[in-house]
Amino acid sequence: MIIGEKIKRLRTQMYLTQEELANRCELTKGYISQIENDLTSPSIATLVDILACLGTDLNHFFSEEKEAKIVFNKDDVFIKEEDNYTIKWLIPNAQKNNMEPIYVEIEPQSSTKLDSPHEGEEFGYIISGSLILNYGNKKFKVKKGESFYFKANKEHYLENKSKYGVTLIWVSSPPYF
Q1: Which domains does the chain possess?
Q2: Model pTM?
């Protein structure tokens, strides 16, 4: 890790000049410049002072936090094929997030497995076809372009009674699939 480059990035993010940072740390502008250009290395005590002026500490400064991935492509998709339907996890390791989106394809005259009541909420959007949402002792027909949303506190499953396949986006929060 290049310490000087990271200090410069923090300083510019705080809209400080080298002179302003130097004054806050009781150092010279030239010394801050040498640190930022990796011409010299500060002592631990001096680095602690500089980081305090920049609103951070040694632990956060040296942690190599990986930037979260934002865009996912087909190579990231995990596919699980059941007897009568296919699930595609669109976001890898989504179970560590607050919600878990999946792409589901349900074959004609078939259904997903029965989900037992659990914590959280579920949302679905029908991309093609139509299905029956079985929620507790109620049934709801959901067609292409329509969506569903419910608390997952009752048994539920999706059923395709048509002769055509159904595709949908299904999201569970917290992750459950």
Answers
A1: 3-62 (1.10.260.40), 74-173 (2.60.120.10)
A2: 0.63
